[in-house]
Amino acid sequence: MPLMQALKARHSAREFASRPLPRQVLSDLLWAASGVNRPSTGARTAPSAHDWREVDVYAVTADGAYRYDPPTHTLKQVASGDLRRLTGVQDFVASAPLNLVYVADFDRMSGAGAEDKAFYSAADTGFVAQNVYLYAASAGLAVVVRGLVDREALGKALGLTRHQRIILSQSVGYPAATH
């Protein structure tokens, strides 16, 4: 789909079909979010201030929670079981096939003060989330970004350290059937 068409189609949706995303769709979605698009430097599809690459993408499905590793384009399991309900306070998050969780690792942001870490990690997360929106529009998927998250409970379930902070979550799936 041409970029202008994807931009026109981009929108938020809060109703999802229950069927899971095929592996190839998940793979393409994660690559669009934050994959390596310049192997010679390891640079990613989303920009990152000072090339810190501080934003990690976690994929939470009915099977478990996984951290996306861009250099190897693989998922690393961090928790088993269905943690989707922890990714937000809205009812639909518990049944959305995929909830992405964007986590900033402040230890990677060398030389930055607390205010800059908060600012730049939020901006960099926005770039990643927008890539997901554009991919979803091009693939006919439903998507919505969310900030309403119990960060403490979800962080504990994901095994995050005190240097990691949940910035946003984003639900993705096929659109719910319309009546």
UniProtKB/TrEMBL annotation:
This is Nitroreductase family protein. InterPro entries: Bacteriocin_Proc_Enz (IPR052544), Nitroreductase (IPR029479), Nitroreductase-like (IPR000415). Pfam families: Nitroreductase. Signal peptide: none annotated. Residues 7-174 form the Nitroreductase domain. It comes from Thiobacillus sedimenti.
